[in-house]
Amino acid sequence: MTVTVRFAPSPTGFIHIGNIRPALFNWLFALKTGGTFILRFDDTDLERSKEEYAKAIEHDLAWLGVHPHRIDKQSERFALYDEAADVLRKAGLLYPCYETADELERRRSRARALGRPPVYDRAALKLTDEEKARFEGEGRKPHWRFLLPNHDGDPFTTRRTDVSWTDMCRGSQTIDLASLSDPVLIREDGTYLYTLPSIVDDIDMGVTHVIRGEDHVANTGVQISIFKALGAEPPVFAHHNLLTTRDGEGLSKRKGALSIGSLRDSGYEPMAVASLAVLTGSSQAVEAVPTMTELGTRFDLASISRSSAKFDPEDLNGLNAKLVHEMPFSQVQERLFSMGVNVAEPFWLTVRGNCSKVSDARTYWQVIHGPVSSAVAEEDREFLAAAVKLLPEGDITTETWGEWTSRLKAETGRKGKGLFMPLRKALTGMEHGPDMKDMLPLIGRQNIQARLP
Hints:
By secondary structure, the protein is of the alpha/beta class. It folds into five domains: about 5-80 and about 195-245, HUPs (Rossmann fold), CATH 3.40.50.620; about 90-185, Alpha-Beta Complex (Glutamyl-tRNA Synthetase, domain 3), CATH 3.90.800; about 245-325, Glutamyl-trna Synthetase, Domain 2 (Glutamyl-tRNA Synthetase, domain 2); about 325-370, no CATH class; about 380-450, Arc Repressor Mutant, subunit A (Orthogonal Bundle). It has helices at about 15-35, 50-65, 80-90, 100-115, 130-135, 195-205, 215-230, 260-265, 270-280, 290-300, 315-325, 330-340, 345-350, 360-370, 380-390, 400-410, 415-430, 435-450; strands spanning about 5, 35-40, 70-75, 95, 145, 160-165, 170-175, 185, 210-215, 235-240, 245, 310. The model has no long low-confidence stretch (mean pLDDT about 95). Catalyzes the attachment of glutamate to tRNA(Glu) in a two-step reaction: glutamate is first activated by ATP to form Glu-AMP and then transferred to the acceptor end of tRNA(Glu).
């Protein structure tokens, strides 16, 4: 079997780190199995869907290293959905309902008050042609429900009907269709809800595995029934846990700050974001993984926890720094140049260990080329004046710092922090930073002499 998976976002806004979790799961599953990854835009809501959001989602996926084998838009496939709806109507499995939202809510409230589950009573199936015509004459438009197969011929006498599947994340799962209302597939205005277009597309595109969030578990029994009603074999399902913050807050409330675009603009590395999104909430250690290929070797749907995947956005900082500290110059050269930092490899190898983000290198570029702002303590002036005189002659190399500080120690008697800190602050304007033995050759003799009083 050739594996085909899909990621089906709605282009009604920018995607955030929680949205990207199922996208990465599907992409990594396709990579591991040699399968096909489809990006399928759920843009049937023509009013809210925007091309700019679709383009932004494609850009965000590409930045993360996800490159779809195929891109489709549901807004271009309405004829297929209409055809499937006609099939269900002719089979008596899609029926019109005329209740208003208020009427349905009153029925649900009444059922709860009587201690019964608020399941739709299928009253619309009892409507006569005359009653339907009267509703139409009043200007009511029907919404359309799918008749669940939870009865033995009499839809008003339901029986327990278990739909079971083996979930690749959650193991054996069962949904009783008798506990559910017949789902609405088509709204009063004739537009489709998510369910039918998704199933029709999965069938038409040969989707073999549906990997998505656990918030869809309850829908799966219904969807399996619709697959079968359309004469198709349902795909394999995997429902993973959802990302939340450490206090359990849903990411949808914070998606602005955690949107992929904002994380990219803030200087985070794509693999830091991908590592956090994929490994959080699994039995794998959450650590920075440098490539998508390596992340794929660690990815395992069976390792996903059943409990919520809580993470701290601050974890990104540590993961990002770990990746930056190990980046070769070839990986960052063009990015540094685009920032106005035109440097050679020794500079990057010297400063990368002190950079949490690649953009931090600009700070050390400024330190090297100046000007540097540093307030010299009065008690250090005599010491720094001596340092000027004791600076070794010749080329400034990685050996110069050790030779220079040894001379100063012998001359002034200073040692430890009292020896090194005044020099670092005078030469870099900073109390911390890269090793001074490596920084000194980059700063150069002219700047060294100019920065000492």
